[in-house]
Specification:
mainly alpha; 4 helices; single chain; two-stranded antiparallel ribbon
């Protein structure tokens, strides 16, 4: 994240017709088209008194959580892929046996099929431990920090970046759907 946090109130400096009190734009002064002006919705406006450093810091906490969400997705992929491989290996054991390769089938069946991926744990247990030990406490801490510092608002940094970067009065750059 950049040191200078984009703010909706900075948009006027960049040639965007922003109303500093609401964070909305209304070049014609009539709110035509939406009845709300052309800025972010209330859920994505900075609460009064919240400074740039707080928006940036809470944005980084949320970015870290988003990275954890991706890591967790990879963990579920690991879980599903490992389980699928074990089932396929079970089929391979049957085919080896049918082909007369009993010793090899027995080796795989004894040593690999159904084997723990960590001592005493299958992948579902790894997922459960990760969720209980790391993921759930992380999501709770991130939510608490957003509640305490920015009235629970999510993606403030990104919402302000959008306001700073979008082209006013362009149909594909509208603030809201």
């Amino acid at each position: 994240m950049a040191a200078d946090t984009p703010r909706a109130s900075d948009a006027a400096e960049h040639g965007n017709d922003t109303d500093d009190t609401t964070g909305t734009t209304d070049p014609a002064g009539d709110g035509a088209g939406t009845g709300r002006g052309d800025g972010p919705d209330a859920a994505h406006r900075r609460p009064e008194g919240v400074d740039d450093a707080t928006v940036e810091a809470t944005g980084l906490v949320s970015k870290a959580l988003e990275t954890i969400e991706r890591a967790r997705g990879h963990l579920y992929s690991f879980h599903q892929l490992t389980g699928t491989a074990d089932l396929i290996l079970g089929d391979a054991v049957e085919k080896l046996r049918e082909a007369g390769h009993t010793a090899q089938a027995e080796l795989l069946e004894r040593e690999i099929v159904g084997r723990n991926v960590l001592p005493g744990r299958w992948t579902f247990q790894v997922v459960e431990d990760y969720n209980a030990t790391y993921y759930k406490p992380f999501t709770a801490a991130e939510e608490r920090i957003r509640q305490e510092l920015v009235a629970g608002r999510d993606h403030l940094y990104e919402a302000e970046m959008k306001e700073d970067r979008r082209t006013r009065n362009h149909p594909e750059h509208r603030a809201l759907p």
